[in-house]
Amino acid sequence: MLQLDASELVKNGSYINGRWHNSDNTFSVKNPADLQPLADVADAGKTQAEQAVQAASDSFAGWAAKPAAERSALLLDWYQLVMKHQDDLARLMTLEQGKPLAEAKGEIAYGASYLQWFAEEAKRLYGDTIPAPSADKRIIVQRQPVGVVAAITPWNFPNAMLARKAAAALAAGCTFVVKPAHQTPLSALALAELSQQAGIPPGVFNVICGTDAKAIGEVLTQDPRVAKFSFTGSTAVGKVLAKQCADTVKRVSMELGGNAPFIVFDDADLDAAAEGLMASKFRNAGQTCVCANRILVQSSVYDAFIEKFVEKVKLLRIGDGLEKGTDIGPLIDDKALQKVTELTQSALDDGATLLLGGHHHSFGERFFQPTVLGDVTAEMTISQQEIFGPVAAIQQFDTEQDAIELANSTEYGLAAYFYSRDIGRVFRVSQALQFGMVGINEGMVSNAAAPFGGVKQSGYGREGSKYGLDDYTDIKYLCIGGV
Ligand code: ADP
């Protein structure tokens, strides 16, 4: 079992150029389940961020010049080490993030699957030859790494959001600097330790942990040595960072907030839909950007669906993520709890019906009861904001067209879900939904083989899949004359 003070995986400072950064100036990482301190981590700032960018810049030429097979082998070693330590990494994640241990284990395997996937893709960074318009010319297209990549990642998937960016960047031949969320630095630092054990050269992968997100973010978005910036987090922060990147015309990828519709049509398998909604709504206590946020149920099956769904929600067990059988852990911080409480209360004030839960849970300070609200409308605040908590807000609709219009009436466009067994409807609705990812008779869509990303104000760029290297490569065209 993981011993926090003895494990080689528990690190207390940023990882820069293959070395661990220490400082007397520290911040405390706390377990959101019981608010107990877990570790003090050196609080890095602007200077360390600049050092990390320098290290990534210095190591870029050597890393990019390595044969793809060599980069691939190193990524594969990293993957294997992560899987070897899956249990300990999962415990560390549950301790700092709060999610149930089984989910944390799942996330470690999911994050690792990107290391494995891109280890393979590294070898397939193919170019093109193009027939030239004249006989004495040849046209060749090559893909080259963009250079130093900087990233900022959130607390809800402390391992996977980082691994899927780093894996693609390193596979393409880029070097990498990441600032994880200050709530969950330990999972990121453990990944750094394993990158070192895997033999990833100094400077190629750097982790900056600090509480001054603004100062570190300014370096990562404004330093001219950084060629590309990749962000996963809220739309509000993403907009600020995208603007900061403009002055140096960086390549930018943004994976921002969502407001996922989950549509249950009258021809759906209601049991499967209720099951899919459980997975989509309550994973990570509802704290994911692809969680069902607006549940739209056709009027003729509304009562029947709610009955089935509420029965399932009643079975959810709240508790400490380390305890066996826990389904729902704590929310990440007081601000998150306050937001979920306020959104629920305002929906009730505006006429929603409380079908289950609705309040803070007595298990601990940061816990909220799994909650089901009926008679929600599109005008309510809860339908317009990301809930990011274990609250299912259910609306009714009458026709297929109504469902599509309701689903698309948001500035977000990350994930959408719908349940239907009518093949014509499946194609019509998939086509009409303005979202980057659509789950059809499926409540979980993400895996390394598939392109993850959004449209509209949910961002741009795709992570994972054969498309995932595009964000980290530039196309170079060679025109050979005088042939
Ligand atoms: P959340 O509300 O889910 O925490 P945020 O978008 O605030 O989402 O945070 C995602 C990441 O962005 C975290 O690593 C956080 O530290 C970082 N962050 C927040 N504000 C800024 C900022 N002004 N500049 C740079 N990074 C920021």
UniProtKB/TrEMBL annotation:
Pfam families: Aldedh (PF00171). It comes from the Bacteria. NCBIfam families: SSADH. Residues 21-477 form the Aldehyde dehydrogenase domain. The active site is at 255. This is NADP-dependent succinate-semialdehyde dehydrogenase. Belongs to the aldehyde dehydrogenase family. Keywords: Oxidoreductase.
